[in-house]
Amino acid sequence: MTELEYFKGDELAASTWRNKYATEGEQTPDDTHKRLAKEFARVEENYRWSQEGRLFLSNYGYQRPHLDEEAIYQLFKDFKYIIPGGSVMSGCGTGALVSLSNCFVIGSPKDSYAEIMKTRSQQAQLMKRRGGVGYDLSQLRPRGAKVNNAAKSSTGAASFMDVCSDITNEVAQNGRRGALMLSMSINHPDIEEFITKKQDLTKVTGANISVKVTDEFMQAVIEDKDYILRFPVDETDLSYKNTDNLGVTISVQYNEFFDGKREYNKLYSIGKGRFIKLVKARELWNTLMHCAWNTAEPGIMFEGAMHN
What number is the average pLDDT over the span 137-142? Predict the structure, then answer.
């Protein structure tokens, strides 16, 4: 039987299997399923007699009957009961040093150039092994914030989007690009730059982007209210604290900013490493909606719903 006969003349299915999942010598997906069953059975055997190893299994895994190679093969056969993830189908049982997980969410880069480079290195290593990668940029300080180097001020969190994206384009996975997801909180002062970045189709070509939207922000959109962007993005004390030329500390709440003179879209320092920016919630939401309509990016992740 040929692969095309296996898929009953479906050329797309046959070419997808051949190009993405088949290994050398495999003629049809039946061969792939036998390879998978053999490797799964090998691992299954490791837990069969080891009481210590079985303690690491789930309750179901601990209690269910032992599965041999033939039983596992019958689960895979004809894609009837179980269809493994792409990384499992392409890598399991081949002996190659590849990931068997499709995607990894890694820690957000901390607010230093060295940490950003460390995250990029992790991204590259995972992509070399066929893993998709996702991480959040909300911990990076906003554009204009002071830094202790020759630059004197930060280029902002959004400025690193292209740097991260470039890794995806540089690390090929069997002739194809990897997958990268970058996210940022709606609370971040650089969020508008993040939202609009990919409207230029030459920018951030190696990543998809998504905005993490809070219930607090959505309520401000519904009520057409002002909204305070802040850094750190989970900051709850939004009072303004600074020192005037006389060394006297002044503290005024947000609604009393400079005697009520509200300046939109301007970054204010409210203490060491703390910043706020005032925006109109509905205008920011409309910008997000327009960009998503225009280029299908950014996506939206509703944080409240995710946590619930």
Answer: 93
